[in-house]
Every structure is written in structure tokens, then in C-alpha cells.
Amino acid sequence: MSGKINKLCAAAAICIGMFIGGAHRIPAAEIPHGDDIRSVKEVTDTARTGQENTAVPAAPEKVAQEKVTYNSVTLNWSSVEGAFGYQISYVQKDGADTVAGTTTADVLSYKCKGLTTGTQYEFRVCALDENGRAGECASVEATPYLNKTKFTSVSTPQLKKAVLEWKKVAGAMKYELYRKTAAQESYELLAVTADTAYTDETVTAGESYSYQVRAIRDENGVTVQAKFSEPAAVGLSSAAMQFESCEAVNYSSVKLTWRQDPTAAGYYIYRSVKENGTYRKIKTITDRAVLNYTDSKIVPGKKFFYKICTYTKKGQTVTAGEQSQAVRVQTQADGPQLVAVRTNVSNRSLSLEWKKAANTSGYRIYRSVYPDKGFAKIKDINGGTFVGYEDRSVIPGGTYYYRIKGIYVNGSYKGLSSPSQSLEGTLTPCAPIGLVMEQTAADTLQVSWNLSIGATGYRLYRSDAAGKDFKCIAQGLTETTYTDSGLRDGQTYSYRVSAVGPAGEGLKCHAVSYTVGGVSLNTRTLKLCVGATKPLKASTFLEGDVEWSCSNTDIAQVDEEGNVTGIAYGTVRVTAAVDGQSASATVSVTPGNKNGIDVSRWQEDIDWRRVKESGVEFAFLRISNHNLADYTFETKYQNAFSVGMPMGVYCYSRAKTVAEAQEEARVVLEILDGRKLDYPIAFDLEDAVHKASTMKKETLHQMIDAFKQVVEDAGYRFVLYSYVTFLNTYLDRTKLDGIDLWVARYRNLSLGTGYTGTGNIKYWQYNSGQYNGSNAQVDGITKETGELVSVDVNIEYEN
Fold first, then answer.
1. What span is annotated as the signal peptide, if there is one (predicted)?
2. Does 2.60.40.10 match the CATH number of domain 243-329?
3. Roughly how many angstroms between the first and final C-alpha of the chain, as a whole number?
4. Which of 464, 607, 615, 620 could in theory staple to 598 by disulfide, Cβ–Cβ 3.0 to 4.6 A?
5. Phi and psi at residue 322, to the nearest 5°
């Protein structure tokens, strides 16, 4: 619906404050509407400037409804040049103007909530200037409504009743079901129900019926009705042959009975998994006196439909009669017994255990963050002998609920049991990040750290000498700071902190050290590109001025504030000195546009706050190894996200076929679950299976294209990772046009990657600690005791 322009000044948008610069500002709630608005605007503008000011933003050229539900309307509009934001309001007929909210200048949509179903509203959008003044409004009319439902199942068991099911409608309180026969011209109300199913037991065999259903909702005593569904036709055939009963014997068999036809030679039994699908003959009854049949080739949880007909013989001629109306059955098997959900602190995972269920072919595992709703499948376990599963795709500190169902297979059919009871599992919080110390007195350090998800408290540990055990010096801490006093001057102390939650104490963070009476830097390493400037920050309790120096000013230079500028490729030491005490950082100057890292399960408990202060501007996280999730991914993602680290992910591939590569991509998307990435999804192609003599180059290229297609169709960017020798030897490097590359080669930074094939080099992994010509350490990635370790270091090229 297109918008129209109202010559209205939305003065309710003007938050005019309290006596600023001598001008009285009227609270928004006191600003009148309608014809009085202009006079208020003139008064306030004149009070502020001494003259009439009419330079307010124009109205949006277009405003439209984007989505309508039973209690909300989502609007979008065109941008207004010079606008600093937008105000959204709405008004009912003969009602007051209600301000729904405001947005910033870059947000051009808004969801108005809490509306009344069936009520027509006029929605108004006006632009705001830098002082919060509103201009003219653009408006659109819209009415929240209930959606039209549709029938999902219609059946006529034994031709004695009609069973109808329909789709649930958001906001519906009840449903009205209408019916008419073939002889009736109009529908009559049959029932009003709060359920989404109804059994009509007033039908007559041989009659045809048509049904319609609609959702209804009570709004302040007024019944609001949705549009009617499409009709559902039901015919109760008067064919001579019909089933008398169709009843489950157990979860894997059903017994069918019928009346004898004395003219028949026998009977044919047909079965289908769809009411209107293809029916296949499953049994021939050659004795007309046999009036029952038990089908034992079904599975629980799946719907089966049956038909019957007579057949007659005349000489060699066999004639089948008319098939009966279909009858439906769906058996149930008891759910497995879920015994326990246990917390694995070291693996950051939850382990499920259940009792083996008889005759199952496997188990399906469901998970939710709610105890009684929202369960979604996370894994199928093929093989009935397995009675456990470790869920690693969970977030530390989180609470999850699990159910399982047995999988039953009978021939080509697969069915599910009823669900087990739900059990709760809670993870311990992850190790806190951002552990820092600041000296606040001669014998005192202020220790602080970041919040951990799911933490109810913290424990702080300290060691006063290298190699000594860490002792708990404080527990039950509810704040993320602790004052440690009575310390010795000149002594180096190391600290670790852990978070405690309902599931117990989590892992301790890696150690961070501080020397009392010394000088400390915010990072021990710094990565920057040639021409870039990044800061080092010194802290000390000493009273002298900080003096900065660099070991080689041809590679990097540092100013008196600690700002380091990259001059040429190489590694130097930058030192901060105060009154004879000093601290140094290793500075690496690289080519490219940005510096980054890539990490996997081999780098656990990363302090992303320190990593970011080390000059790292992006990170690739391993999200999966073939089709298995990296169990450290969720912790890494949450902690990196908390400090604003731009991220991409990579899948370490072991795919041998195009189908396996597509499945690897789907696993990545399933783990991401729609999360936004600032960097691409990388396909890591380097495993031994890709270098096997049986692997063809053509297949590898098809796998690359297949993985790329899946992730790009989902809205993500793609990059291919491998090392130069692989690209040159196992792929056809002339056939990588249009593909972004992430190239690994460990050598002198001045030499570049050395790759000369097709493709666009976006990233270079230039070291992982295997090459001594450049530094591969990043503060925040350490041993448990705090010593720096090597990590894969990368650069990004701008073009």
C-alpha cells in the first residue's frame, strides 16, 4: 500500500527538554496535536532562535506496510536526505496519536506492536533533525488481521466419522467450523473449538460433505474473524465393501476386519502412506469366509492408509470390485528411557545416556532451551546398540533440555516412537576473558575480568613464583573485580580466575602476570601493516614519565604516547621505561591491509580481549572437521563476539565426493544457524584424501564449486583455503577464475605467497611458528601458565 503525505508537524516527536540556553522546552507529553501543533512549533522555535524557523526535514516520499500480523504492523519507508532519525506513530479513528518509537537515520523499518486485531490504524512516519524536531509525515493505513488457516488432514475412519485437522493461526483464540452437504447451498456452523482438530460423528455413509474453518479472536468483547479456509471435500462412498474396524495390535502391526460378501471369491487389501497417494496390493485373501487380516510390516509414528475390495472369478477371468474408502491408522511405541544428562567440564559438553530400547534401529535426539517446547532434532544415531551421545554444539553456562525418540525401520518404512521424558543439562561457565591487573597502591593490585555467561560467582587464584601451584585467594565473588593487598614490591604475581555456575566451577583462564612496582604493557605482541599506526599502553605505579623506544626504527617507530607506526616488513622490540623499570612488546610489521589469525580446538581458552589489543583485526574460527562440529567453536564465537572481533569460519574438509562436500557445507550452515559473519566461510582443502592417487582434479574442482554454491545461496561469502603446493599440484590452477583464495606459505614476508595461478588472493597465512623469519605469537593465546605460543597468523589484502 503506497503512502500519502500529511501536512502535519509531528510535534509529539519534539523532546524539548527543560530550560536549555534560557529557552523553555515543552515536555513531549504536553505538546498538543492537530490544529494547535503549528503554533507550539512557532513558539518553541522563536524562543530558541528569536525568529521563526521552518527548516524542518521533509516527509519520506514513500511509506508502506511490510508485514501484518494479528497484533503488529511492520513498516518501511524511503530515506530523507539530512534526517538524523525517524519517529513512528499511529492513530485510530477518533483516537489520540500514539508514538510507537523512533529509529536512527540508517534504520528504515519499524515494527509497531501491541495493536488490536481488526482495528484500522493510520501509521505516520516523520523525519527528525539533529535537535529532535519533526518534519512533515508520510502515512499509510493498515489493519492487523488473523491469517487464513488451511486444512492439513481430512480422513474418514470406517466411514463412520470425518476427522479434520487444520493449521494453527497465531493469535487465534478459537476456530469456527462450518459444513454443508451436496444438497445445501450455504454452509452452517458445525462447531466452535479451541483445538486445531475436530471429529464430526454426525456424518452419514453415502453422503458428501464440504467443510470450511476460520480463526476467531475476542478483542474487548468484539469477535474478530479471519477469512475462511479453502473448502475440504469429504465423500463417504456407499461402496458395498468397507472395513468394519482398523485397530493397532501393537506398535508394529494393525488388524483390519470387514463383513463377508457372499458373492465374492476373495478380497484384495491395499496400503499407502498417503491418503490420496498410490495404493499397492499387500495381500490377497482367497477365502471369502476370512474376514480379518493383520499387517505386521508397519512402523510406529507413521500414518498408514488401507483400502479393500472384493474380487470374483468366472472361468479364468478375475474381476476386482470397487475399492473402499480409505481408513487410517498410526501406531505408537513407548519412548526410550533417558537416564541422565551429565556435564563434561574439560570438553565443554553435555553427555546423554539412555537405556537400550528393544527392536530399535537407532535414536533421534532433540534439544531445546525450554523445558516443555521448542524441541528440534540435533542428531540421528544410526544403530540400536548406541546408548549415549555427547553434545558439543552447546554454549558454556547454558541450560538445555533433551528428549529422544526410538527409530524403527521395517523394509522401506521408517518411523519414530513417542518421545522420552525431558531431562535438563547445564554447562559450567567458560573461563573468563579480559583478566588484567592495575597497581593502585604500593602493595595493592586491582584485579578485574569480563563477565562469563551463566556465572553466579567467581574464584580467584594466585601464584607468587614460576612453577608454583595456584592457590585460591578468593571465592564466592559476585563482582568482576578484586583488590589484592599486602603484596611485596618487586615480586611478580600470576593470577587465574574461574567462573562458577549451577553446574559447578568451570575451567580457569590462562595465567596473567604482573610485577609490583614495575611497568606493564596492555599486550606483549603487536601486529600492524606497513603504514598503519596502533597504540601500546603502559601502566605503572611509578611517578616518572614513560619513555618509549624501538630497537629498529627502520622497521617501526614509536612516538611519546606509545603509538607505533609500521615502516617496513620485519620484527622489532618496542620498550616502555619508567625510573629504571621497563616492559617490552614484540612488534611485527607485515604487508597487506589487516592482520588476523585462524584458530581451532588446538587453541583453547583464548583471551580475545588481549588478542584484539595485540592488533589482530579479524579471525577465522574452525567451525567443523568434516561433518563434525569443533567443540570449542561456540565458546570462541561467543567470547570473540563479546569484544567485537570480526570473524569468518572454516571447515576442514575430508570430503571425497561432491555430495560429501555439499553435506559439509550444510553442516556449517546448521551450526551457524543464521548468524552474521563479517568474513567468508572457508573451504579448507588439504587433507590426505584430497591427495590420494584415486582423487581426480576434476572431482576436487566440482567439490569446490558445490561447497561454494551452498554457502553463497545462504547469503555468505566463500573463500578457498590451501597451500601453494596443493594449488599447483593437485588442482588445475588455470581453472580458479572468480574464486577468492586464502593461501598458506611460510616464508619471508617480502617474497609474498609466490602463487601465480588464477583466482583472487584475499588472505595469506604467512606463518604458524614453523618459520623463524617472522613472529607467530599473539598475546591472549598462551599456555595455561601464561607463556606465549605460536598460532596461525594471516594478512588480508585490500584488493
1. none
2. yes
3. 43
4. 620
5. -70, 135
